[in-house]
């Protein structure tokens, strides 16, 4: 039994919405990459994770709205949703996400800088203490040798 036109239209629009959601998720990943430097391996891992999530999301969506039946028009709807999102809202969403992530990352960055400064101070103190202990040990050994020599 086939689907009615209105049923197919709902599936198409839901797929387009799913495609737009994938576009937002990818823009979130792009916003994070603008703020945090990534090495090639990390970028590849993030991309692989994104595509796994995207595949699972679209599979779940098709299971919910289309009883898991694979047809061409939901795929076309998802592609259209991504394209429309990228052409209209993507730049604005990235700017908003970067601004929101800056609010989150700025305190983390400041705390990291403070921690680095604190660790540097501790390292300097430990180095001074080691030198002092070496000198005391060397002086004690020299005093011990002098004591045995007399």
Q: Keywords, please?
A:
single chain, 150 residues, 0% strand
Counted beta strands: 0
User: What is the residue-averaged pLDDT?
Assistant: 89
Sheet with the most strands, sense and barrel status: none
Q: What share of the residues does DSSP label as strand, in percent?
A: under 5%
Number of helices: 4
User: Structural class, from secondary structure content?
Assistant: mainly alpha
DSSP helix fraction: over 70%
Q: Report how far apart the termini are.
A: 111 Å
Global outline: rod-shaped
Task: Indicate the low-confidence ranges by residue numbers.
Answer: none
Write down the Rg.
30 Å
Query: Secondary-structure element sequence?
Result: HHHH
Describe the protein's topology:
Elements: H1 5-35, H2 40-66, H3 72-88, H4 90-149
